Q: What sequence folds into this?
């Protein structure tokens, strides 16, 4: 039997107020896909950042090929053959695929002064061909889809002769077809002897790609299981320490709900084409579609984050002029972005400050003095209501798990008390336990009379939570389905149909 390439023993890592890893152990064999699962805050990403040199361990031991090693920084990890692909891709949009892959290691001309662009592109082409990837090395990253950018990241990692490839939530932004393409690449890498550590919150992926599964909880190792010897219910029970229903709760429909939000004739170049819809008080209106369908673009345009060519928005029957996000907020519209770290939170600020970001006017008194006690009270109430795991209100967001960061974004808009809330991929990168809390929150908000417009790439989530479902394809609304008639098959048919073919009569 082959010896493990990596062995971790009694690993510990702490941050201010948080013992992130507690005597963790883990091993990895050549040519295997070892999946790491656990709720947000379980320690998965922290362990991987220690292995890849982003964080330094406090104590414990890391063995590589049976010999103890220190990994003080990412460069050392790369030299040892360990590469990580983070959930937030680390590419430069203005550079080409080849330039991103070899940045800092570019081949030079004969005189060693000028960049040899031809050789650079040839080397990148060889790597793409090796993994059967159809990518032009000369194309700029900004022009590639998220899935193609993910592939460039993989090639970049392997260009360092990586023997261990760590993939942190690689499918979070991919559709089903792109996920299958990624899995094909992973299987090919496995056949070449590359060892892969795979982190995912998508439970349906575990048994498609994993050889073994390790479960972590609250910074501790729980168990390692062969994928073929276990089942989803048992894995979930180990993750959360209790039995949990993996499905979303059913939504209770209410009759005679008044229309409180309308969008008419929204257009923007080739991105959005004649978008028309309405949403009712106390309703969860789901938006479904494949990547690039225009769902996020529509939400951003409505919120004033992106310009429009034509169209109008009505709130409670009155036309409103939204040119910038502050206009939308003033009219009671909140937007939870799919990219929370870029648009939703200030990672260098604490929980208390982030919670008040959208409501500073109401917390500012005479002569501009900030009402800190009121902010603290409001933030504490939302931390308790949303079960945000933080040692204190003064904890910086960058030290919270992804799921808890998402909850702080929700807290921000709840404190603002917006009546119309756009939730763009509300459970992306969130574990199954935290998902249940977000689902319950969405239902509670709707029951309280809030209007929820939810964009999600997870069809079970759309089907379970939505009163109605609007489907988009290539910038158009191609259909509308009631909760009772919607199925995954019907949604996918509409999501791949360029022209409008279905309009449900359920108004």
A:
């Amino acid at each position: 039997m082959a010896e493990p390439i990596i062995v971790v023993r009694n690993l510990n890592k702490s941050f201010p107020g948080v013992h992130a890893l507690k005597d963790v152990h883990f091993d990895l064999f050549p040519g295997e896909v070892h999946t790491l699962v656990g709720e947000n805050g379980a320690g998965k990403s922290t362990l991987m950042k220690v292995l890849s040199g982003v964080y330094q361990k406090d104590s414990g031991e890391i063995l590589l090929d049976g010999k103890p090693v220190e990994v003080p920084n990412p460069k050392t990890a790369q030299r040892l053959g360990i590469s990580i692909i983070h959930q937030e891709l680390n590419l430069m949009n203005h550079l080409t695929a080849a330039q991103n892959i070899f940045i800092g290691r570019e081949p030079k001309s004969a005189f060693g002064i000028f960049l040899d662009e031809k050789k650079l592109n040839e080397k990148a082409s060889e790597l793409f061909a090796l993994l059967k990837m159809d990518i032009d090395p000369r194309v700029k990253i900004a022009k590639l889809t998220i899935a193609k950018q993910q592939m460039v990241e993989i090639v970049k990692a392997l260009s360092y002769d990586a023997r261990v490839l760590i993939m942190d939530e690689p499918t979070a932004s991919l559709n089903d077809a792109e996920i299958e393409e990624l899995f094909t690449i992973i299987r090919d890498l496995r056949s070449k002897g590359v060892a892969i550590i795979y982190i995912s919150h998508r439970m349906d992926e575990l048994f498609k790609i994993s050889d073994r599964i390790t479960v972590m909880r609250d910074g501790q190792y729980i168990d390692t299981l062969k994928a073929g010897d276990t089942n989803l219910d048992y894995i979930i029970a180990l993750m959360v320490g209790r039995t949990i229903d993996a499905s979303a709760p059913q939504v209770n429909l209410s009759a005679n709900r008044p229309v409180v939000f309308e969008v008419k004739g929204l257009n923007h170049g080739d991105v959005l084409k004649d978008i028309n819809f309405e949403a009712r008080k106390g309703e969860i209106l789901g938006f479904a579609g494949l990547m690039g369908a225009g769902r996020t673009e529509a939400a951003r345009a409505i919120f004033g984050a992106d310009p429009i060519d034509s169209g109008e928005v009505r709130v409670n029957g009155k036309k409103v002029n939204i040119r910038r996000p502050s206009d939308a907020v003033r009219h009671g519209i909140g937007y939870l972005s799919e990219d929370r770290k870029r648009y939703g939170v200030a990672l260098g600020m604490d929980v208390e400050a982030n919670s008040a970001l959208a409501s500073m006017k109401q917390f500012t008194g005479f002569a501009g003095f900030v009402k800190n006690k009121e902010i603290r009270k409001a933030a504490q109430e939302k931390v308790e209501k949303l079960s945000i795991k933080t040692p204190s209100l003064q904890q910086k967001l960058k030290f919270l798990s992804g799921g808890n960061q998402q909850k702080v974004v929700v807290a921000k808009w709840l404190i603002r008390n917006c009546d119309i809330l756009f939730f763009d991929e509300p459970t992306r990168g969130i574990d199954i336990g935290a998902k249940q809390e977000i689902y319950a929150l969405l239902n509670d908000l709707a029951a309280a009379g809030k209007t929820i417009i939810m964009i999600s790439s997870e069809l079970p989530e759309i089907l379970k939570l939505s009163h109605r479902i609007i489907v988009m394809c290539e910038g158009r609304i191609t259909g509308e389905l009631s909760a009772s008639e919607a199925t995954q098959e019907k949604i996918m048919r509409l999501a791949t149909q360029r022209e409008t073919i279905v309009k449900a009569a359920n108004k």
Observations:
- Residues 501-507 have pLDDT under 50 and may be disordered.
- The radius of gyration is 24 Å.
